[in-house]
């Protein structure tokens, strides 16, 4: 299906499945709504994915006008197989999937990457009443109802796993299967941040997008890299990971989420009914892989796959492994269904 190729990632030792030349090569240009700093990004995979970002109107109860909502749309809509929909982690964007998205498409999946309300590249120029969990859930549901319209294989990394669980429990008809990657699902919301005075919360948001904090976060996120390598990676990551922070409404949306209490899905884990694939980097220094075992025990129908020599973001550090596990997960269920049909 796909051949092996060493990609030009920040870490030369990272290998991934072949990405076609058309997918890796920049094409026409960037959407005009992206911050102008997008032109300084050098990573060809980030550039190419950024060029495919769209804004689609989504009507929600908490906004008078439709929210122009950012996502990466699939090249082709399929009628046979259900789509793969990619969420991102805390304070991130669809560009988090720059290495994995083209591999999923090349594997034949109808693939969407969706920006969670308040992060990413949606247009929030009209100030929203809230960017709390309920608003994020409603916005995603209305997006799904308007454009995807079929049960999906919902993929959530880090905090995106909490978003995925919350959504799957509240809208089970919209989710066929779950894929949870280094899941941040045992943190009880934003904790003490919810009690901060708004002025101090804004100061915290300013620090959140600072380069020094992002440098330290990258050092913790990726497995077995030196501080100098982390510095090089931060120069790349700060261009990509901070791009959405340059919108004037980013701080308002982030502060509103912080003081709202954030995601607390501990009580929802056992309510998940969908078949679930858990993927974990064995060397995750942010969330212990012991929690992967706990999550596996608490979910009613789950399998677990761990990736050696990998940190907190396998879809960035080991994209080929993530795609391989997703393919096996989907094909495994398809084979079981076909066997049942044959037996009848």
Describe this structure as you would to a colleague:
By secondary structure, the protein is an alpha/beta fold. Helix content is 38%, strand content 15%. The protein has an eight-stranded mixed beta sheet with strand order 3-4-6-5-7-8-9-10, with helices on both faces. The protein has a two-stranded antiparallel sheet with strand order 1-2. Residues 1-27, 228-233 and 336-344 have low confidence and may be disordered.
SSE pattern: EEHHEEEHEHEHEHHHHEHEHH
Structural class: alpha/beta
Find the CATH superfamily.
Answer: Alpha/Beta hydrolase fold, catalytic domain
Range of strand content: 5-15%
What global shape is seen? globular
The number of domains:
1
Spatial order of strands in the largest sheet = 3-4-6-5-7-8-9-10
First-residue to last-residue Cα separation: 31 Å
Q: Fill in the CATH topology.
A: Rossmann fold
Oligomerization state: single chain
Q: Low-confidence segments, ≥5 residues, pLDDT <50?
A: 1-27, 228-233, 336-344
Q: What's the rounded overall pLDDT mean?
A: 82
Percentage of helical residues?
25-40%
Rg from C-alpha positions? Answer: 19 Å
Biggest β-sheet description: 8 strands, mixed
The number of helical elements comes to 12
Q: If classified by CATH, what would the architecture be?
A: 3-Layer(aba) Sandwich
Number of DSSP-assigned strands: 10
CATH class placement: Alpha Beta
GO molecular function, one term: catalytic activity
InterPro entries: AB_hydrolase_1, AB_hydrolase_fold, Epox_hydrolase-like
Organism: Arachis hypogaea (Peanut)
Domain AB hydrolase-1: 82-319
């Amino acid at each position: 299906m796909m051949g092996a190729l060493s990609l030009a990632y920040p870490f030369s030792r990272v290998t991934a499945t072949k990405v076609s030349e058309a997918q890796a090569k920049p094409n026409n240009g960037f959407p005009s709504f992206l911050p102008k700093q997008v032109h300084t990004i050098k990573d060809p995979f980030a550039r190419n994915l950024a060029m495919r970002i769209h804004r689609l109107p989504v009507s929600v109860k908490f906004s008078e006008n439709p929210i122009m909502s950012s996502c990466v749309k699939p090249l082709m809509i399929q009628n046979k197989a259900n789509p793969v929909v990619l969420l991102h982690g805390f304070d991130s964007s669809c560009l988090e999937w720059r290495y994995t998205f083209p591999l999923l498409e090349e594997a034949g999946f109808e693939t969407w990457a969706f920006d969670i309300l308040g992060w990413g590249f949606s247009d929030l120029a009209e100030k929203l009443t809230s960017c709390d969990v309920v608003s994020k859930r409603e916005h995603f549901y209305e997006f799904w109802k308007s454009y995807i319209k079929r049960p999906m294989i919902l993929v959530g990394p880090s905090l995106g796993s909490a978003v995925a669980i919350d959504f799957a429990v509240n809208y089970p008809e919209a989710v066929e299967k779950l894929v949870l990657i280094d899941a941040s699902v045992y943190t009880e919301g934003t904790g003490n941040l919810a009690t901060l005075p708004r002025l101090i919360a804004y100061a915290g948001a300013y620090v959140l997008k600072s380069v020094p904090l992002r440098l330290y976060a990258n050092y913790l996120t990726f497995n077995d890299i030196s501080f100098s390598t982390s510095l090089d990676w931060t120069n790349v990551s700060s261009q990509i990971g901070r791009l959405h922070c340059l919108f004037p409404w980013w701080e308002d949306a982030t502060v509103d989420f912080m003081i709202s209490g954030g995601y607390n899905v501990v009580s929802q884990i056992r309510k998940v009914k969908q078949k679930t694939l858990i993927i974990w980097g064995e060397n995750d220094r942010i969330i212990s892989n012991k929690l992967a075992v706990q999550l596996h025990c608490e979910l009613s129908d789950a399998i677990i796959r761990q990736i050696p020599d990998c940190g907190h973001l396998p879809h960035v550090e080991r994209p080929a492994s993530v795609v391989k596990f997703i393919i096996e997960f989907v094909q495994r269920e398809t084979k079981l269904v076909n066997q049942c049909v044959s037996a009848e």
